[in-house]
Structure of YdcF family protein:
Amino acid sequence: MRFYLVTVLYLLFFLIRLKKDKGNLINGFLFFVLMLLSGLCFIRLADTTGSRFLLHLATAIAVLITIVLLSGTFTILLMSFGSAYVLLKREGRSLSNLLSLFLGIGIIGWLLLNTLSFQNTSMNKTFSAIMLVLNTVLFYLVFMFSNFLLASFVYRIYYPIRRQDYIIVLGAGLIHGDKVSPLLAGRIDRAIKVYRKQLKNKGVSPIIIMSGGQGPNEALPESHAMREYAIDQGIPEHHILIEDKSVNTYQNMLFSKELIESKEKDMSHTHILFSTTNYHVFRAGMYAKKVHLRAQGIGAKTKFYFWYNALLREFAAILVMNKRTHIICVIFLLVIIISSRALIK
């Protein structure tokens, strides 16, 4: 009974923390602990009740998790090379499109180096030191990427029930200098879907803010092209506001917030959504938090081959956002491992 109580109390703690700060990587780890406690509760319940159905279900889930964990490296390799092949074929060669390919090559290189290390235990100290650093960094990256995936999943468990006052659509570049790209169209369409549903159910429409400045190869600001696209989809022009100075996600959030503040006297009672692509929701939420904008994100779907590579790019960008903290954490891990080895010897 105490174990169930601990799990319920932890669930309450998790929900309270989530309400206060959804855009934090630590939420991924906290969610993992919640799943672990829930799983243990389920196993205990199956054992105490003696229910065959619950016991079989618990066994099946445990076997499935084991298979996923054991086949993880092989699955990631397949996804990396498969995604890279399709992406390069359809989207063309660029450094950003090569991330999944680099990951696949990196994993193969890591496997070969570790195989070499295990086969020859008399390797020199320099090689052993390199492998120690490499494996520590890799362990940290895998841990953080798992946190990122779970935190992103938790962040996106949201459906806009309350009436929204504003929907910020984040820009994503134009094609041919003046046309909305399919990726950007997806973000606008996602906002329009919420707009129409709210208008139908609540009789009040939110204001859509098109956020995006003018790039070096663009004939007009992104937000202007976005407005024209939305008008073509039947959105009244007076329900659209323009923010045309931003050049990145941070500025999207900052300048959109300033625009809303110029219209609203009390921001504490203003409900705001931002619309972006599914892989970008979590990082965009981190920037919203950074500029003290209380907003929840919704994501437009994208093709899997593009999503996988873009997800890696998002993770890399999040690491760079707090690179000093991550470097300190890796160094701290290395110190612990080296100290432990020295004590054992």
Observations:
- The two ends are 44 Å apart (CA to CA).
